[in-house]
Amino acid sequence: MKLGARILKTGISIVLALFLAELLDVPSPVMAPIAAIFAVQPTIYRSYQSILEQVQGNFLGALIATVFYLLLGNHVVVIGLAAIIVITLNLKLKLGNSTGLALVTLVSIMYMPGDQFIQFAALRFGTIMLGVFSAFIVNLVFLPPRYENRLYHKISDTTEEIIRWIRLSTRNASDHTLLKTDIEKLKDTLLKIDLTYTMYKEERSYFKRDDAVKARKLVIYRQMISTARRALATLNRLHRFENEYLALPEKFQQSVQEQLDCLITLHEQVMLKFIGKVRPSAAAENPIQCLDKKEVFRMFISRQREYEEEDDNHLYHTMQIISAILDYDEHVEHLDTLVTSFLSYHKEDNEITVEETIE
């Protein structure tokens, strides 16, 4: 079982919140770690956003609790009504992420008030904010997330899995049922990769010079994801029209197989070139020569002419396979152009390390 960074940060945040609460001799110190649990975020930027929202949301919760208690008391029905008001106002002010902790603030103030209510409410609000700031400090100092490593390795691993299946499919060596299951899993994986990409995009650079480098990297990673999707679309077409593909003339099948072998080899090379495992000079000196897109299209047209007088649904399905291959080809070429351009300017700024433990 792997311990992710967020799990460790949550534990450290609880320890820090309790330590500070006890150090300051705060009554009911348990409120601080509860707030810290709510406030832990996956990125520093989100943690900063969370602080702004939590301050506003919890202040609103404390204010509503104070007003309702002074006017209506602390009957359970009053507490419920106050909670409804807090939720409504948080949603209206677009502070939905802070609603949970704002309700904790409200209930902790209203349910068991002290003798001096105003001071008690201020103390409870301060204790909860202590937990929020503890979580922010931990997120800022301890185990800062490195989403670039995580993003690249997720894309690379998913791409390798898709490529393996394409190789098997073009050779009629894949298990139909197992491949169908894996295609659905790969679709879900790509959705998760989109979330990781968003996390990486939200990371903030400490130096202005790094902004330009990151902007270009974001374009490349977006293209990597897009290219992996086109590879998966090609695999899906091969799987969906497996019988039609196998019914094609052997020479035509061989041409499709050779073109896909060339494309996936180039795709692999580009992914490795980006992290320095393939020298750009070596790739330029010995380029992988795939069929020109026009040649692939002519191949399909010639196939169509052979059967134009027959009612052959295979032509329609073959067209879908060919169109997916052409689309995949364009994305691989574009990715290669972006990576080559990036490495010519920022080779020293691209250090992908061994994949970190993923939370």
Count of domains: 2
* End-to-end CA span: 11 Å
Give the name of the CATH architecture of the largest domain.
Up-down Bundle
Give the total of beta strands.
Answer: 0
* Radius of gyration, whole Å: 29 Å
Report low-confidence residues grouped into runs of 5 or more: 354-359
Give the structural class: mainly alpha
CATH topology of the largest domain: Methane Monooxygenase Hydroxylase, Chain G, domain 1
β-sheet strand percentage: under 5%
Keywords:
2 domains, disordered C terminus, 359 residues, 14 helices, mainly alpha, elongated, Methane Monooxygenase Hydroxylase, Chain G, domain 1
Could you characterize what this model shows?
With 359 residues, the chain is mainly α. The protein folds into two domains: 5-141, no CATH class; 147-349, Methane Monooxygenase Hydroxylase, Chain G, domain 1 (Up-down Bundle), CATH 1.20.58. The chain has 14 helices and no strands. It has helices spanning 5-23, 31-39, 44-72, 76-92, 99-110, 117-141, 147-170, 176-202, 208-240, 242-246, 250-274, 280-285, 293-306, 313-346. α4 packs antiparallel against α5. The protein is elongated, with a radius of gyration of 29 Å. The chain starts with a helix and ends in a 13-residue tail after the last helix. The relative contact order is 0.10. Mean pLDDT is 83; it is low at 354-359.
